[in-house]
Amino acid sequence: MSGKSIPFDREFIERVASEYPTPFHIYDEAGIRATSRDFKEAFDWVPGGFRNYYAVKALPNPAIMKIVAEEGMGYDCSSMAELALSEYLGTPGDQIIFTSNDTPVSEFKKAIELGAIVNLDDFSHIDYVHESIGLPERICMRYNPGSLKEGNAIIGKPEEAKYGFTRDQLLAGYERCAELGVKEFGLHTMVASNELNPDYFVETAKLLFELAVEVKEKTGIRISFLNLGGGIGVPYRPGERPVDLHYVSAGIKRLYGELIEPAGLHPMRIYMENGRCVTGPHGYLVGKVRHVKQTYKDYLGLDATMANLMRPGMYGAYHHITILGKDGRPHDHTYDVTGSLCENNDKFAIDRALPEAEVGDYVVIHDTGAHGHSMGFNYNGKLRSAELLLHNDQTVSLIRRAETLSDYFATLDLSGFTMPTRLQSEALASQSGD
Fold this sequence. Notes:
Elements: H1 10-19, E1 24-28, H2 29-42, E2 50-55, H3 62-70, E3 74-77, H4 80-88, E4 96-99, H5 105-113, E5 117-120, H6 124-132, E6 138-143, H7 167-179, E7 184-189, H8 198-219, E8 223-227, H9 245-260, E9 269-272, H10 276-279, E10 283-294, E11 298-302, H11 311-315, E12 321-323, E13 333-338, E14 347-354, E15 362-366, E16 386-390, E17 396-400, H12 405-409, H13 423-431
Parallel strand pairs: 1-16, 2-3, 2-9, 3-4, 4-5, 5-6, 6-7, 7-8, 8-9, 11-13
Antiparallel strand pairs: 1-10, 10-11, 10-15, 12-15, 13-14, 16-17
């Protein structure tokens, strides 16, 4: 058995692929909505109000962004393009948090124009923004706890990370912002990514609650909202358990009563900025076996590549793999599952036990709904795939078409060159495996 469920079968994918050739990412709307609602229900106790700001970087597609917004989420943005997507969707300013680093003034300007919550990453950014365009009346600051808090393999040790203020810088930063006319203050941290230990997030809340109390005691400044960051992980491997949001919420609620209320900081708004766990488990990269190669090892060569999903090649990350229609067969063959890039790390799996595969089999790579398509690239001239949305009624919508060679060449100056008229159709046929 595959060990992971899929909301479709081979017959369904054959029908979809007849209209939208593989490879493509397909996202399950029902799953995304269910996860979004779980967030809202778990934290409905927060006295000042709770909101998860969906990390747009995870899956920056307006069709997906619209779904999570309908379920009560805002947007966590980190670039001009992500701010522009939020603006395109008509998002109110208080439903946008702008958390960036090494940030150009043009992006700060855009965020302020939209009325977004600006989350500063560095002490020097205070005067940088003030002198360039003027600080908004509401400012948040990103705290880097250094050795006080462990990171993890993806984000690294906090003291070696490029993000955030030190504790002393943070205290000085609030005082400096108050001098410059800032009226409302927030506090943020983000020190882990793809974490499955629920206690980690309760501990993070304790860290920020205690720091908010310290800020008030030492500066007289009241923190009105806390952003506990994101980092809630995805159970990529069969047998791993998802983070229990209600367990996390209960732990945070207990600490709120112990730390925030006695300090006179009640009511306080609490935010998070999870993206991966909202959409990640509800996305699938679907490809087709193009070649079965047998040399010193056995290889399944797909029409998908690392350009469609770089996490395995970049991090050595595990993504579960299912061969559609062969779930009941024994996993008695060992394969490296690869793409066609001219790089040996273009592999979705190494020494993976799977049922015997044949040319033409459909392969599903699980949990690609976050940091999948969004991390794609065009090395070797590979064209980025389509994105599809699977609706509750089992219909499918195209929410991003596949790239064409015209897209790839669009930024080149081809004046003086003659492009063969048949090039485009030949390239498209090549991409679909014909």
